[in-house]
Backbone:
């Protein structure tokens, strides 16, 4: 209702005596305080720009350089070696001013030199390939130098200009690695044919495409990311629900409060506190776990106040600098909920109070309003046409702007979800499906992320994929869950803490004028067919975890990936092209690369195990497979992957209007096993020793191939690995649930003799 307050700040009437001017001092005060908040943010941004601009030096180092230069000159020594005199000959300045100018130029030169040195140091990646406990002297010296150059407390984006650019691999190396990756999947005849295609591509078109790609790498910050965002995400015309968006879940065993409005109050507050940290750049830069090596933070820039708007040929990501409200959906109605009042963030209790007002509102949806969100769940072209025809002006545009400009989207779901009742495994599966697609119209899938608060206090998240990858959203969600449960907390009766200003204006109901529901119903039908076809299964594996795996001196990720190869072989009787997401955030604006987890070594181990080879032989082959997987993962992280390079070569070929049978065949290969690990990045926020039940469920995504599986997993603590498996009912050969593992989960729950509890 901020517009209403501003509208009545000045009231006047024309009278015979003249103009009768009335001022609303309360409204004027709110306008003043909002302006103060805006100016504080501007000043903070300017200060951060200065600090980032001189990193790895500090602004105060300028004063040190000036004093040092002046001191040497006072001692009648010329540290400039005649440059100050040269400057004076060409500029009409006093000697002191010339000295100040020289000091400033020297200081800026030192900053550039330090930044260049840091960039060179961060371009060194050999440390990643060294064995644990056997660090070379070169790497030890390198670590020391990195610590020295980045010792001052950095801001969130301080390292951005010091991160190296993603290198373009040699085309011969990429083709060699590609052929090696598909060798276990092809017969001898098929492999010979693929080798000939690759050699023909390299000797003819490949080198020409490579030259264009190297030219782009010299000009662009990252030669992959802009094309990846545009062609893989934004140009896709199929539904983003299930196909692209992914979800994150609440705690497994605990629901901090059963009060829906209270959980919404704390969750919204925690998210806004995180946004404040991002805006002020108070978050610590993410680093490679256990090291001082920074990761690119560019994906944080579009986390809030961002939406994906549909187009006929391509969608567009729109980001606004700030937003003082969130959009809320409840029982078919849309609301604008202001989260700032007079320039201050509302307390969790006040947000709970406002959310409860929405829950208590019994007004019915307007015609066409209830299922309007289905437009974001269906195909993109119909949504683009509908938007242009009916949402480009009037009240529809104003209401749509309120949703798209909101900090994020909130759904107050009227269902109960989570692990509860007599069927905990089945309930977890339904919980996953609810977060992945809901009713297909009660989420706004175009928003950067949407929060779902269920009737029983459970919560979750649905995230749009084009603006960022899962680790960025996972970092946000970890902070939100920890802040909600351990910092904000609840009263004994389950309500948020804090005071309430009951004079707060009510949440604003958004108004619509939908002339026809035909297109909405059409999009809903497409979305429901897609949602009904998704088979989701959540499996918390509790027999052993990271602790026992690490005792074997084997990477937990490699262990799980090889186990997935074995599971797929037993399920389908063969091997398939396997996708594992690896980050490339060691480089500026880096996103992901593919680790082709199905290797010659992993296939050899699986065959040996299934053929009944000796235990010693299986152990030997397993260790070889593990080492191979680790090497593949490191190569992907350090820019020596396969798939992003081939993808970019294909894009160049399309721009040039030439066809490559080799590239066309490579990019058409289906990923029947698509996997991803959700990293736990902030374990310091969770006290699992004193609060062992506060275990995260992680998140998941839909299957990539119609006849394949999507597998997401999160390694929680030392004794649990949570798996999220998805497939499609329409494929008769894939089933997400496993009859072998299901009884183990049921036994675990029965032994604990508990379901979800309110804490």
Residues:
């Amino acid at each position: 209702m901020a517009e209403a307050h501003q509208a009545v700040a000045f009231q006047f009437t024309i009278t015979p005596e003249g103009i009768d001017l009335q001022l609303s001092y309360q409204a004027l005060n709110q306008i003043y305080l909002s302006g103060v908040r805006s100016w504080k943010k501007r000043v903070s941004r300017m200060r951060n720009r200065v600090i980032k601009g001189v990193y790895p030096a500090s602004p105060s180092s300028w004063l040190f350089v000036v004093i040092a230069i002046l001191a040497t000159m006072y001692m009648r020594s010329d540290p400039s070696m005649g440059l100050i005199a040269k400057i004076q000959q060409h500029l009409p300045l006093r000697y002191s001013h010339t000295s100040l100018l020289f000091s400033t130029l020297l200081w800026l030169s030192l900053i550039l030199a330090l930044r260049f040195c840091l960039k060179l140091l961060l371009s060194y990646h050999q440390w990643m390939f060294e064995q644990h406990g056997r660090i070379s002297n070169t790497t030890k010296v390198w670590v020391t130098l990195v610590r020295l150059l980045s010792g001052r407390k950095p801001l969130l984006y301080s390292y951005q200009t010091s991160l190296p650019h993603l290198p373009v691999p040699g085309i011969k190396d990429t083709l060699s690695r590609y052929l090696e990756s598909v060798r276990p999947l092809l017969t001898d005849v098929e492999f010979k044919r693929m080798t000939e295609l690759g050699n023909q591509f390299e000797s003819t078109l490949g080198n020409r495409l490579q030259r264009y790609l190297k030219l782009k790498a010299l000009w662009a910050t990252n030669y992959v990311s802009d094309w990846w965002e545009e062609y893989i995400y934004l140009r896709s015309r199929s539904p983003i629900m299930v196909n692209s968006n992914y979800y994150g879940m609440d705690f497994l065993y605990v629901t901090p409060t059963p009060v829906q409005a209270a959980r919404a109050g704390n969750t919204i507050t925690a998210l806004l506190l995180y946004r404040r940290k991002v805006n002020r750049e108070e978050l610590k830069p993410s680093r490679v776990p256990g090291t001082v090596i920074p990761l690119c933070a560019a994906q944080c820039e579009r986390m809030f106040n961002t939406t994906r708007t549909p187009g006929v040929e391509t969608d567009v990501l729109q980001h606004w600098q700030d937003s003082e409200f969130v959009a809320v959906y409840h029982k078919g109605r849309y609301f604008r909920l202001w989260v700032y009042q007079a320039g201050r963030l509302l307390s969790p209790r006040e947000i709970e109070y406002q959310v409860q007002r929405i829950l208590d509102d019994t007004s019915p949806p307007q015609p066409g309003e209830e299922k309007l969100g289905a437009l974001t769940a269906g195909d993109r072209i119909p949504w683009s046409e509908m938007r242009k025809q009916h949402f480009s002006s009037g009240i529809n545009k104003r209401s749509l702007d309120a949703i798209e400009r909101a900090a994020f989207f909130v759904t107050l779901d009227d269902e109960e979800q989570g692990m509860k009742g007599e069927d905990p495994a089945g309930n977890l599966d339904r919980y996953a499906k609810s977060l992945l697609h809901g009713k297909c119209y009660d989420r706004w899938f175009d928003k950067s992320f949407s929060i779902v608060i269920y009737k029983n206090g459970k919560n979750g998240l649905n995230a749009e994929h084009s603006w960022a990858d899962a680790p960025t959203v996972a970092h946000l969600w970890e902070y939100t869950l920890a802040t909600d449960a351990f910092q904000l907390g609840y009263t004994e009766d389950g309500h948020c803490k804090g005071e309430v200003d009951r004079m707060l204006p009510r949440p604003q109901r958004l108004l619509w004028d939908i002339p026809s529901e035909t297109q909405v119903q059409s999009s809903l039908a497409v979305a429901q067919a897609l949602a009904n076809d998704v088979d989701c299964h959540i499996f918390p594996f509790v027999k052993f975890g990271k602790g026992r795996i690490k005792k074997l001196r084997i990477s937990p990720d490699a262990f799980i990936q090889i186990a997935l190869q074995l599971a797929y072989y037993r399920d389908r009787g063969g091997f398939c092209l396997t996708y594992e997401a690896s980050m490339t955030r060691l480089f500026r604006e880096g996103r992901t690369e593919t680790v082709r987890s199905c290797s010659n070594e992993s296939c050899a181990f699986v065959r040996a195990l299934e053929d009944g080879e000796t235990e010693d032989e299986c152990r030997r082959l397993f260790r070889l497979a593990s080492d191979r997987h680790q090497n593949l993962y490191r190569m992907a992280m350090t820019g020596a992957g396969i798939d992003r390079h081939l993808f970019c070569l294909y894009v160049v070929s399309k721009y040039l209007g030439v066809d490559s049978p080799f590239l066309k065949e490579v990019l058409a290969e289906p990923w029947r096993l698509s996997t991803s690990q959700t990293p736990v990045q902030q374990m310091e926020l969770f006290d699992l020793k004193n609060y062992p039940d506060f275990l995260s469920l992680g998140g998941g995504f839909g299957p990539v191939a119609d006849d394949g599986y999507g597998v997401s997993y999160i390694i929680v603590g030392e004794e649990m690995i949570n798996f999220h498996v998805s497939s499609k009912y329409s494929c008769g050969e894939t089933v997400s649930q496993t009859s072998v593992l299901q009884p183990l989960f049921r036994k675990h729950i029965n032994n604990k003799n508990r379901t979800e509890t309110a804490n």
The chain has 23 helices and 22 strands.
